[in-house]
């Protein structure tokens, strides 16, 4: 009875989990925990953001995302310990960026035009804080990441059902899906999350995950976005560097199949449009209308180069606070009108880096680029640190890193400086980094217990060893005890 009572009073044992060649000890209570319900609500909210399903639904008038956001804000505040969310350097730099947006607002050339972008920027930072505050474990992170992946798939399917051909490119005539370029970039950035989900599955699960990416590739091709194509090539090439030889061969085979499928099934206009990224175009097979569209595409590429230099010049002229959040198009039109007498169209910068620098000045650009580089750095460092220690976290960090590299390339051709897209990806990166550190601390605690077996006095060593053995009884213990008693009696 005394032995039983002593075992009941002993500390909770450590469960042994095998990750590759390393045995990791972590508390049983942590391994048995389930993600809280509020994380499920957060996943639903991220799903609605990435799918934009309510943009084309009649129930959109119910403002479900706003109601969910209110619940999430309340839950994040009730969680307490806001220092946890503010402990990341990504949070500090992203907070500085949003604070600078508010500083630049009073100096805007058109405050009425800047106000919606200021509100969107603050909302985006709020979503970022909610993600970092509520996601406290690897399981929570995977649930939210899977919700983002599911949302990207749904948006691809919706474009196939409700999409309309606008100048030869698929678009949904409402919400953020109406811009084929931004829509295509969202699809590309969702692919690493599907690859991450496949990496956690068995053979059948991998087949299902890769099959479900087919609608994403189809919608991406129909969008005809050259900027998203460059982002995908960058993302694909980065992923190629980290896989083994067998996976490299598989990726090459899939790439060849994708190119052949595009040549066979894509309309002639989209095939020629994609090839304008790499080589001169052959318009012999195009109709007169398609030649006109292609001429507009080439003109838009030249126009984007002109906008790039105009944004750089605007940054040099307004280096401190810029021209104001979101009003680059209006100021650029005024400058073109004053210099040449023809303002042309009201165009954004088509480059997030120059959008931030021209609208928020050099301080805003430094805050933005710091946030992006810190996110990339943390994702890569988490992957390297956990490759052998915690492969599950390492895989998550690798696919997050690949996604961020694609983002860094894709936003060079799009103006999304105040969007929820950046907030969600930055939030996923920061929350993954904090959860990786928490799990590393648990592993280090288990390793310390193992070292104590070799370093502590015999009596302490025995108690720690019993704890590491998860309360299991040593075989033949009673028999060994009886033999020891008999030997002592003979000696006496």
Task: Give the structure's gist in a few sentences.
This protein is mostly helical and 492 residues long.
Secondary structure: elements and pairs:
Elements: H1 2-9, E1 14-19, E2 22-27, H2 28-32, H3 37-51, H4 64-79, H5 82-86, H6 89-104, H7 111-134, H8 138-162, E3 164-166, E4 169-171, H9 180-199, H10 203-212, H11 214-223, H12 226-242, H13 245-265, H14 268-275, H15 288-317, H16 328-340, H17 352-386, H18 391-410, H19 420-455, H20 458-468, H21 477-491
Q: Give the proportion of residues in helices.
A: over 70%
Q: What is the straight-line distance between the termini?
A: 29 Å
SS class: mainly alpha
Q: Give the beta-strand count.
A: 4
Strand order of the largest sheet: 1-2
What does the radius of gyration come to? 28 Å
Give the integer mean of the pLDDT values.
78
| Low-confidence runs | 1-32, 282-286, 289-299, 453-485, 487-492
How many distinct helices?
21
Total individual domains: 1
Strand content: under 5%
Largest sheet: 2 strands, antiparallel
SSE pattern = HEEHHHHHHHEEHHHHHHHHHHHHH
General form = globular
Report on the architecture of this protein:
The chain has helices at 2-9, 28-32, 37-51, 64-79, 82-86, 89-104, 111-134, 138-162, 180-199, 203-212, 214-223, 226-242, 245-265, 268-275, 288-317, 328-340, 352-386, 391-410, 420-455, 458-468, 477-491; strands spanning 14-19, 22-27, 164-166, 169-171. With 492 residues, it is mainly alpha-helical. The chain has one domain (34-450). A two-stranded antiparallel sheet has the order 1-2. A hairpin with a 2-residue loop joins strand 3 (164-166) and strand 4 (169-171). Helix 6 packs antiparallel against helix 17 (352-386), helix 8 runs antiparallel to helix 19 (420-455) and helix 19 packs across helix 20. It is globular.
């Amino acid at each position: 009875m005394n032995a039983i009572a002593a075992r009941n009073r002993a500390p909770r044992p450590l469960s042994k989990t095998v990750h590759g060649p390393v045995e990791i000890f972590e508390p049983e209570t942590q391994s048995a925990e389930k993600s809280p319900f509020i994380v499920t609500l957060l996943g639903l909210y991220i799903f609605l953001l990435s799918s934009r399903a309510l943009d084309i639904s009649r129930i959109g008038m119910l403002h479900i995302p706003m109601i969910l956001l209110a619940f999430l804000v309340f839950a994040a505040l009730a969680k307490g310990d806001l220092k946890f969310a503010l402990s990341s350097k990504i949070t500090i730099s992203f907070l500085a960026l949003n604070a600078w947006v508010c500083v630049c607002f009073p100096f805007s050339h058109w405050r009425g035009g800047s106000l919606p972008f200021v509100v969107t920027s603050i909302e985006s930072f709020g979503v970022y804080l909610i993600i970092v505050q509520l996601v406290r474990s690897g399981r929570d992170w995977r649930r939210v990441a899977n919700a983002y992946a599911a949302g990207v798939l749904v948006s691809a399917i919706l474009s196939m059902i409700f999409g309309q051909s606008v100048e030869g490119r698929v678009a949904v005539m409402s919400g953020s899906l109406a811009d084929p370029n931004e829509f295509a970039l969202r699809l590309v950035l969702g692919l690493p999350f599907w690859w991450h989900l496949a990496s956690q599955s068995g053979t059948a699960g991998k087949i299902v995950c890769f099959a479900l990416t087919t609608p994403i590739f189809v919608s991406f091709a129909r969008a005809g976005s050259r900027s998203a194509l460059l982002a995908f090539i960058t993302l694909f090439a980065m992923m190629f560097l980290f896989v083994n030889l067998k996976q490299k061969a598989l990726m090459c085979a899939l790439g060849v199949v994708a190119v052949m499928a595009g040549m066979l099934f894509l309309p002639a206009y989209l095939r020629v449009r994609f090839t304008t990224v790499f080589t001169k175009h052959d318009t012999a097979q195009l109709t007169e209308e398609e030649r006109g569209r292609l001429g507009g595409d080439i003109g838009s590429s030249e126009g984007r180069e002109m906008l790039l230099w105009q944004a750089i010049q605007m940054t040099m002229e307004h280096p401190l606070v810029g021209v104001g959040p979101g009003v680059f198009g209006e100021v650029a039109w005024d400058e073109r009108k004053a210099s040449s007498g023809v303002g042309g169209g009201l165009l954004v910068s088509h480059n997030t880096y120059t959008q931030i620098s021209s609208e928020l000045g050099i301080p805003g650009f430094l805050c933005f680029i710091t946030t992006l580089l810190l996110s990339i750095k943390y994702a890569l460092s988490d992957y390297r640190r956990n490759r052998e220690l915690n492969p599950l976290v390492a895989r998550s960090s690798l696919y997050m890193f690949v996604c961020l590299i694609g983002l860094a390339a894709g936003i060079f051709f799009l103006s999304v400086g105040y969007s929820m897209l950046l907030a969600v990806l930055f939030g996923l990166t920061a929350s993954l980094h904090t959860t990786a550190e928490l799990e590393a601390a648990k592993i280090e605690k288990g390793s310390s217990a193992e070292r104590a077996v070799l370093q502590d006095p015999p009596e302490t060593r025995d108690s720690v060893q019993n704890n590491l053995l998860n309360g299991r009884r040593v075989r033949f213990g009673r028999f060994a005890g009886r033999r020891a008693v008999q030997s002592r009696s003979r000696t006496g």
